[in-house]
Write a structure and sequence with these properties.
With about 290 residues, the protein is of the alpha+beta class. The strands form four sheets. It has a seven-stranded mixed beta sheet with strand order 1-2-3-6-4-5-7. Strands 8-15-11-10-9 form a five-stranded antiparallel beta sheet, covered by helices on one side. It has helices spanning about 40, 75-85, 105-120, 140-160, 220-230, 250-260, 265-270, 275-285; strands at about 5-10, 20-25, 30-35, 50-60, 60-75, 90-100, 125, 170, 180-185, 190-195, 200, 205-210, 235, 240-245, 245-250, 270, 275. It folds into two domains: about 5-160, no CATH class; about 170-285, no CATH class. The protein is built from eight helices and 17 strands. It is about 30% helix and about 30% strand.
Length: about 290
């Protein structure tokens, strides 16, 4: 396994204040700050560099819905100042720039378009962009450089526990290393789940209950709605939803909830033989 070193610096000593992140041996520089500290960000070198940025907040009509705006600026500060006046939803900004300052206008426009496209295809957030950013034509060399920069952005976001760029559906998942397939039976539905790359993956062909429970939490109802709208769960008219593709979830409980159409404790109800996921985790710890 090849390790990565990410350096996190709390500028004002507060975990939720202005922070910077850098990846060892990469030129990418990330600055994260709450909206209330845009004045602090304005004093930093990265504010006057070209870059791409993400504005994050929640939907005013649905506190459980994450909203994202993807933008770019050369430099970024004037654009962020503008958004502080005309966009109310965002409470946090993440700015990506280059430590050596070498990011061209065309490159940041390309990055903006790529980030927007990934977020739209992942279908995990509500996008606030009124228009789809246009991807410019760039040279082969620039494309290679931007690709490396984009991988750095993905790594930083993943380390911050943001998954809105990760596709829900896996179209080319490598299942050769699966050692266990867990099952969940509920009414006429049968779900199958594997743990792949630390993600809980409901496998293609699994089925889910058709009707939501009356007590279903809003977040689970929205999750199922998203799975249906993206074509991951399809109704073939046989009394259940069928997973048309492998689908990733951040927890076994969310994976289970999507199948049973209500709140569920995935640690208990996913079974491998007669043992639950919790039982197997405990056995693994004891054997260490």
């Amino acid at each position: 396994m090849k390790g990565k070193l990410i350096r996190l610096f709390l500028v004002d000593g507060k975990p939720n204040g202005l922070r910077t992140l850098e990846i060892s041996n990469m030129t990418i520089h990330s600055t994260i700050f709450p909206r209330t500290q845009i004045d602090m960000f304005a004093k930093r070198d990265s504010a006057n560099k070209p870059g791409v940025y993400l504005l994050l907040g929640t939907d005013v009509s649905d506190a459980e819905q994450l909203v994202l705006y993807v933008g770019e600026g050369d430099p970024v500060l004037p654009r962020l100042k503008s958004h502080s006046n005309n966009k109310d939803f965002w409470t946090e900004a993440i700015v990506f720039s280059s430590k050596d300052g070498y990011l061209t206008k065309t490159q940041i426009q390309y990055l903006e378009a790529e980030l927007y496209s990934l977020a739209k295809e992942a279908f995990r957030v509500k996008l606030d962009n009124s228009q789809c950013p246009t991807k410019p034509n760039i040279s082969e060399v620039d494309a290679a450089e931007v690709s490396q920069f984009l991988e750095g952005i993905k790594l930083i976001l993943a380390s911050l526990r943001y998954d809105f760029l990760e596709p829900r559906a896996l179209t080319d998942s490598d299942q050769t290393h699966i050692t266990r397939i867990f099952e969940l039976k509920n009414k006429n539905a049968l779900g199958k789940m594997a743990i792949m790359d630390d993600k809980y993956v409901v496998l293609k062909g699994s089925t889910a209950v058709l009707e939501n429970r009356r007590s279903i939490p809003n977040a689970i109802a929205k999750l199922r709605k998203d799975l249906i709208e993206t074509g991951i769960m399809v109704n073939n008219g046989d009394g259940v939803y069928t997973f048309a593709q492998d689908a990733t979830f951040n927890s076994p409980s969310y994976a289970a909830a999507a199948i049973v159409a209500g709140a569920a404790n995935g640690q208990k109800i996913w079974k491998y033989g007669n043992r639950s996921l919790r039982d197997i985790e405990q056995e693994t710890l004891i054997s260490q």
